Amino acid sequence: MQDYNQPKKLLITGGAGFIGSNLVESYINSEEFSLIRVLDNLSTGYLHNIDRFMSNPKFEFINGDIRDKIITRKACEGIDLISHHAALGSVPRSINDPITSTEVNVNGFLNILWAAKEFNIKRIVYASSSSVYGDLTDSPKKEDRIGKVLSPYAANKMCNELFAESFARNYDMDLIGLRYFNVFGPKQDPNSSYAAVIPLFFKAALNLQSPVIYGDGSISRDFTPVKNVIQINYKVLLSSNLPSRHTVLNIACGQTTTLNQLWAMIEEVAGITVTPSYGAQRKGDVYQSFADISLARKAFDYNPTIDLTEELKLTLDYYKFFFK
User: Fold this and answer.
1) Are strands 123-129 and 174-180 parallel, antiparallel or unpaired?
2) Which pLDDT band, with edges at 50, 70 and 90, does 192 fall under?
């Protein structure tokens, strides 16, 4: 049994990406971690997110792909804990190319699980997604009820939860899946062809352009500041009292915001007025996303930041610098 009071060697897969690099930045100086190792192939992550850590003796970087079994074994050797965030995100991307999405998101995850098992790593926290709720009409969403998945990406994440459950049952491992709800914040890429809505809205705002809203703007999301993700990963990685060998948790704010409301908030923080353009609703989009976060609160004392206006201001500061 591991002593979680001793400093741990942590592997962050996808650590050059949006969420992963925020985890690195927050944990690199923590006494709880003696080493932060990042595995990333830089397909959606960027060296500029982590380059300032390269000279830190507590930091290691492996440029490699989770689809490569040799690389995943190398990354897991000597590691105590894993925070798995390497993935190909985006529902539209998965619809356009379900094979590559599945190779990365499912096969890559399985490679990490197997390498962890081989090196006797007992705890993995992994990124799941609110997309697994699919067509479920319940509101708010609770972890014990899901609907029919609406996209290959959602199927990937659902499959990951099933593999995690099976590894927890068969290999004496602790697996914790975090169902993220529309995470946003600094370092989220606004220039990708599959960029998320908040960076796209900020890009439009800073260029005084009309943003594109798919549907009539009544689609709603439980937008979640990345600092909440940093908080819950830290608590789950180091907890000495898990609810079960495999647990899934909603990670969100427990509130809902429509796309029209979001654009109005961004107009306000950016000090602009621009009328959005509207397009057809996209395939695979969930209409409403609103989380019940009581399980995360109870099990891990999750205490999310919920002031979206203030967090959007901080995110705007990042994009002002980004677009200079």
Assistant:
1) parallel
2) confident
Q: Does residue 163 lie within any of the structural domains?
A: yes
Integer-rounded Cα radius of gyration of the chain: 19
Q: Read off the pLDDT of residues 30-64 as tens digits, 9 standing for 90 and up.
A: 999 999 999 999 999 999 999 999 999 999 999 99
Contact status, residue 178 vs residue 242, Cβ threshold 8 Å = no
Contact 83, 277 (CB under 8 A): no
Quick check: is 294 in a domain?
A: yes
Number of domains in the chain: 1
Range of the domain at 164: 8-184+225-253+290-304
**What is the distance between the alpha carbons of residues 124 and 301, in angstroms, rounded to a whole number?**
19
pTM of the entire predicted model: 0.93
**CATH number of the domain that residue 101 is part of:** 3.40.50.720
Residue with tokens 């962890």: 116
- The residue written with tokens 């923590």 in the block is 30
The token pair that represents 172 in the structure block? 């004496």
Backbone angles phi, psi at 41, to 5 degrees: -95, 0
Of 104, 99, 107, which is closest to residue 88 (Cα–Cα)?
A: 104
Encode pLDDT of 65-113 as tens digits.
999 999 999 999 999 999 999 999 888 899 999 999 999 999 999 999 9
Q: Which residues partner with 257 through β-bridges?
A: 221
Residue 318 domain flag: no
Inter-residue contact 302 to 231 (CB < 8 Å): yes
Cα(228)–Cα(170) distance, integer angstroms: 31
Ranges of beta strands (E only) in the chain are: 8-13, 33-40, 59-63, 81-84, 123-129, 174-180, 183-184, 212-214, 220-221, 224-225, 246-251, 257-258, 277-279
Q: Which residue has the tokens 């109005």?
A: 264
172 assigned to some structural domain? yes
Q: Which residues are catalytic?
A: 153
